[in-house]
Specification:
211 residues; 2 domains; 5 strands; Rossmann fold; 13% strand; single chain; five-stranded mixed β-sheet
C-alpha cells in the first residue's frame, strides 16, 4: 500500500496577462523535496476577490478532494486561495473537516499537525492574514473609486456601451454556481435560497445553458 503523502497543487493569478509559472515551479519543487506525490494541479486566472462559487478551478478542487484521497493542498501564499476573509476561513474549516491539510509555502504554515489535529498557531496566523488581505482589497477598491471619480469629472463615461450584449462565457463565469446547481437538477426556488439570484435570472440561465 502506498503510504506516501498525496498532494494537489493550486495556483492562481488575477489577470490573463499574468502567469503562475513561478508558483507552480516553487510548489512542485517543494513537493519533490518532500517526496510528495502530486496527483493533480489546479490553476486559474481570476481575481481573488471573486466569490468562491465564481472560481471554477477552486470549485473543481473542492469536489476532487471529496472524491479522492488527498492528504495536503499546496498553495504559494494565502491570497492565492482567496482575498475574501469569509471564503478563506470557510475553505480552511471545510478542509479541516475533511482531514485535508493546507500548506502555505511562503509562510511555512500548515493547518493540520502531523497527527491530523488542527494547528492552532496556523489558525491564528491565517485569520490575521485574511484580515490584512481584506484591508488591502479595501484600499485597492478605494483607489479605483477615486480614479473613476476623477475620470468622470474630466468627462469620461463609465459603463457598458449602448447595445452591449454579455457573451455566454461571461454568464458562465458570473453564474458558475447557479449553472452547476441547475445541471444537478435543483429547483429554481432552492437555487435562489442558496445563491440569492433572482428567479428571472435563473430562468434565463436555464433556457440558455440547460438542455
Amino acid at each position: 500500500m502506498d503510504d506516501k503523502t498525496r498532494v494537489v497543487i493550486y495556483a492562481r493569478v488575477s489577470t490573463s496577462t499574468q502567469d503562475y509559472d513561478h508558483q507552480l515551479k516553487s510548489l512542485r519543487d517543494f513537493a519533490k523535496k518532500n517526496s510528495y506525490i502530486v496527483i493533480k494541479e489546479f490553476k486559474e486566472k481570476i481575481s481573488g476577490a471573486k466569490k468562491m462559487y465564481e472560481r471554477m478551478a477552486l470549485c473543481e478542487l473542492m469536489d476532487f478532494i471529496k472524491e479522492n484521497r488527498v492528504d495536503k493542498i499546496l498553495i504559494f501564499e494565502c491570497s492565492r486561495l482567496s482575498r475574501r476573509p469569509a471564503d478563506f476561513l470557510n475553505i480552511i474549516e471545510e478542509l479541516n473537516e475533511l482531514g485535508v491539510s493546507l500548506y502555505i509555502l511562503q509562510n511555512g504554515l500548515e493547518t493540520l499537525l502531523p497527527d491530523g489535529t488542527i494547528n492552532p498557531i496556523a489558525t491564528l496566523v491565517c485569520g490575521i492574514i485574511a484580515q490584512f488581505n481584506q484591508m488591502e482589497r479595501n484600499l485597492i477598491r478605494s483607489r479605483m473609486a477615486a480614479g473613476y471619480e476623477t475620470y468622470r469629472e474630466n468627462g469620461g463615461v463609465v459603463g457598458r456601451k449602448e447595445g452591449y450584449i454579455k457573451p455566454d462565457i461571461d454568464y458562465k463565469k458570473e453564474y458558475f454556481k447557479e449553472i452547476y446547481l441547475l445541471e444537478k437538477g435543483n429547483t429554481l426556488k432552492d437555487i435562489k435560497a442558496i445563491t440569492g439570484t433572482s428567479i428571472n435570472t435563473l430562468r434565463k440561465l436555464k433556457s440558455k445553458f440547460i438542455l
